[in-house]
Amino acid sequence: xxxxxxxxxxxxxxxxxxxxxxxxxxxxxxxxxxxxxxxxxxxxxxxxxxxxxxxxxxxxxxxxxxxxxxxxxxxxxxxxxxxxxxxxxxxxxxxxxxxxxxxxxxxxxxxxxxxxxxxxxxxxxxxxxxxxxxxxxxxxxxxxxx
Length: 146
Prior knowledge:
Blueprint: H1 3-8, H2 11-18, E1 31-36, E2 43-50, E3 55-63, H3 66-79, H4 84-98, H5 110-113, H6 125-142
Antiparallel strand pairs: 1-2, 2-3
């Protein structure tokens, strides 16, 4: 693997790809979010158990490249147990980070920093953000966004 690709495939990404957080189908989940990228074929289902104010549990299943699978794993780990507004804010922060729009003083999760290599590989942007964008749409339908 060349040195540029090594920057993209960090240890965190490799760990989440090899042993993803809550990677299992949940047949009776109250909500199922489908994240599909027809260009590259990444396809995940995110199983959400939430109340009107909180995300209780998240699981996911499907297939895709290491970037999309690790990113979806980090999404589920990052927002499970959070209230809906807090989860929405975390998602927005991750998407701003991927878009290179964070302010220097914004604290980032070490898991988010694992995706800094995506900035050098714009073709991997959709892989890193696929599930995050779909979860954001779901939350927008559940909470009032100002």
